[in-house]
Design goal:
Blueprint: H1 4-24, H2 27-30, H3 36-58, H4 61-68, H5 74-81, H6 84-99, H7 103-124, H8 131-151, H9 156-174, H10 179-200, H11 203-209, H12 213-237, H13 240-246, H14 249-260, H15 272-304, H16 316-355
Helix pairs in contact: 1-12, 1-14, 3-6, 3-10, 3-12, 6-7, 6-9, 6-10, 7-8, 7-9, 7-14, 8-15, 13-15
């Protein structure tokens, strides 16, 4: 069970991380005269530098190399590299969209993305959906359907965001790629592409000749590093359900920035009815996640104190030892499962050799 102090720290870290990620949404405006594509290219380079620095400070390189050693076949390497262009396209759209009047369209995609992931979990992994999740999904679907009937289309930027990320995470999950390892590999593979893009469009010369970019580009790297660090802190301190609920703050921040700082009319990205239904769906999702978190916390408290209560009994040390024992048991189970998967693969290969 997490302490109140950990929950407060994790919530503060998650809120700050979502705000900083949303702030990156505006950097295309600050970095003028760089184009949206040039800003996205610089962000890839600075994210890679920041992430390398972060992993070095945390001494996590061994974990990265240990995973890469598990990729043996061409198929595994192909599936490992295949999602990289998807992430590259998402980074490009995130930085290019606000500069080119598509801030609200991109924001709408981030609103719909959690709902699409719920449907992916239901139909690809056969995960159960609560009644509130079904209601939220139907509300969002009704809003989108209304706009399609009214205008005959939905922005390509919206579809690219909400339908682009699920294949990325499905492919990453198939190989059980750790988040940091996957992100580092994606940025390394994207580096040659963005270097060519910056060289061919004069991005290096423009950055060298514009004095304000000398401090704004490093600031872009600093904000990226801070956002990633705070996300890692929040993911360690918060339950998955609460951490997921707080991730809905990012599209809310994006929406506010698009209306206020980007001076976009709300109807440029869709009708008021559609936005209203999506906001209702988002509120229902937050409510469902909060109810699940409160329920699990209550169950954990009941299980932690399932012995007769006499004054200060059971002692706090016994409860702490019980939690430690549970963590160690879970780790042993994961190791056994991992080794069993390796044994199964070796057994299959041996059977294939015998069949020849």
């Amino acid at each position: 069970m997490l302490t109140t102090n950990q929950t407060v720290q994790g919530t503060s870290a998650a809120t700050s991380a979502n705000f900083l990620f949303s702030l990156l949404f505006l950097f295309g405006l600050f970095l003028h005269p760089l184009s949206g594509t040039q800003v996205a290219s610089w962000r890839v380079l600075l994210m890679l530098f920041s992430l390398v620095l972060l992993v070095s400070i945390l001494k996590q390189w061994q974990h990265v190399f240990d995973y890469l050693k598990t990729l043996k076949t061409r198929k595994e390497w192909f599936l490992f590299i295949l999602p990289t262009p998807i992430l590259g396209g998402q980074i490009w759209l995130f930085m290019w969209g606000p500069v080119n009047g598509l801030g609200l369209d991109v924001t709408l995609g981030y609103f719909l993305y959690p709902l699409v992931m719920i449907l992916v979990g239901r139909f690809f992994y056969h995960e159960s959906m609560s009644a509130l999740q079904w209601v939220a999904t139907l509300c969002a679907a009704a809003g989108i359907a209304y706009d399609v009937l009214q205008h005959g289309t939905v922005s390509w930027a919206t579809l690219f965001v909400c339908l682009g990320y699920p294949p990325y995470y499905l492919l990453r999950r198939k190989l059980a790629v750790p988040p940091i390892t996957g992100l580092i590999s994606d940025l390394v593979l994207l580096t040659p592409v963005v270097l060519v893009a910056l060289y061919s469009t004069g991005g290096f010369e423009l950055a060298a000749s514009t004095s304000k970019l000398w401090y704004l580009l490093p600031l872009l790297g600093i904000i990226s590093t801070a956002a990633m660090s705070l996300t890692m802190i929040a993911s360690r301190k918060l339950p998955v359900s609460l951490f997921g609920t707080l991730s809905y703050l990012e599209p809310i921040f994006l929406f506010i920035f698009s209306i206020t700082l980007l001076n976009q009319n709300i109807e440029e990205g869709g009708s008021l009815f559609m936005y209203g239904m999506i906001f209702v769906a988002l509120l229902i999702m937050i409510m469902d996640s909060a109810m699940g978190y409160v329920g699990r916390r209550r169950d954990n408290r009941l299980h932690g104190y399932n012995e007769p209560q006499i004054n200060n009994f059971p002692p706090r040390r016994r409860l702490k030892n019980r939690r430690i024992k549970g963590v160690l048991t879970a780790r042993r189970f994961r190791k056994i499962k991992r080794y069993q998967q390796k044994i199964d693969k070796m057994t299959n290969k041996i059977e294939q050799l015998h069949s020849r």
